[in-house]
Amino acid sequence: MAFKHRTDIDLLPSYKQGKPAPKSNRHTYKISSNENPFEPLASVKAAIVDDALSHINRYPDMRGWGVVERLAKETGVAPENICLGCGSTEVITQLVQLLAGTGDEVVYPWRSFEAYPIIVATAGARSVQVPLTSDGHHDIEAMIAAITERTRLIIVNNPNNPTAVPVSDADARTLLDAVPDDVIVLFDEAYFQFNTDPNTAVAMELFQEYPNVVVAQTFSKAYGLAGLRIGYAVAPEDVIDGMRKVALPFGVSRVAQTAALASLDAYDELNDRVQVIISERERVLRALRSQGWTIPDAEANFFWIQFGEKTEEAEQYFIKAGLSTRVFAGEGIRFTVGEAAANDLVIQTCSKLKTVGLLV
Ligand SMILES: Cc1ncc(COP(=O)(O)O)c(C=O)c1O
């Protein structure tokens, strides 16, 4: 760029959006962004039309008080412990902006959610990326060893994107017990509702026990509102106050707030869909493992195959089959659990990959 600007931004990777479904005469599928494959609920659409659309000439309630109070009731915390953002991406951004500036460090597992390095570098802080263990778990001891005087935030991604591996309650407590009380630990639980691991950490429980826990959740995944951009954080009151100071003013639209409330009203119906996605995930994993694939524990609405150097070659087979996946060059492919037909295509394509020597 020829204009005077922050040259540290030049070093940032651009956030890569999941590719759209491949173009073809046949039906093709987008399983690249961990979206919910179900169409929006009729009740959610009706609430948007009935309530929100007629107010789009007005700014939304900046605090999102209706949603905040409702979430407070559901989660058993005070409304002062909750703030909203444009997806959980924004609440994570708010938190990093609040806590970490020039010279400060943010510790998180890697590979993990691609937005973390961008958010941290944009704040002027330094990422301390702690490699996952070879089976995709957070390396808790290494994360503890990475804490320094300059550490301002530690991020736990449970289950981790893109590996889908959960973090156990025991591991979370080992970490929390080792972290100084004045350093925040963020539990990014974007895929919380898909996590059926009986040993998993549950950040809302840890929030009640430790003074330095922040929880980030989203309406994008289980609630199927990815296109409306609404997520939230649960945090100590003074942290919420700080996060709100750095929030994008009026970032969460009334349309998003209305849809979130209607979705909370329709929780049972949405939860039925989550259960369908979980059982599809289990069906696909069973099929692939019986073909011989090595796949780490998957507790999200996606799973991970570590193709290593065969990644790009394998991707071509999925594109040919009509599937856009999320590819991490030289590392592996993340597959969103989508419609049953898309999942069938994943199973069939993996079977084909096996015959051409790409089984890992
Ligand atoms: C681990 C993780 N955290 C947070 C998010 C943010 O989602 P959103 O901003 O839509 O709430 C994502 C989205 O893919 C994610 O994978």
Descriptive overview:
With about 350 residues, the protein is of the alpha/beta class. The chain has 13 helices and twelve strands. It has two domains: about 110 residues, Aspartate Aminotransferase, domain 1; about 220 residues, Aspartate Aminotransferase, domain 2. Helix content is about 40%, strand content about 15%. It is globular. The N and C termini lie far apart (about 40 Å). The structure holds pyridoxal-5'-phosphate. Pyridoxal-5'-phosphate binds next to helix 4. It comes from Bifidobacterium fermentum. Pathway: Amino-acid biosynthesis; L-histidine biosynthesis; L-histidine from 5-phospho-alpha-D-ribose 1-diphosphate: step 7/9.
Give the tags.
about 350 residues; alpha/beta; Aspartate Aminotransferase, domain 1; Aspartate Aminotransferase, domain 2; 2 domains; seven-stranded mixed sheet; three-stranded antiparallel sheet; 12 strands; binds pyridoxal-5'-phosphate; HistidinolP_aminotransfase
Bound molecules: pyridoxal-5'-phosphate
**What distance separates the N and C termini?**
42 Å
In spatial order, strands of the major sheet run 2-8-7-6-5-3-4
Order of helices and strands: HEHHEHEHEHEHEHEEHHHEHEEEH
Uncertain stretches of 5 or more adjacent residues: none
Under CATH at level 1, the class of the largest domain stands as: Alpha Beta
Radius of gyration of CA atoms, rounded to a whole number: 20 Å
- The 3D shape can be described as globular
Subunit structure: Homodimer.
Cofactor: pyridoxal 5'-phosphate
Region (Disordered): 1-32
GO molecular function: histidinol-phosphate transaminase activity; pyridoxal phosphate binding
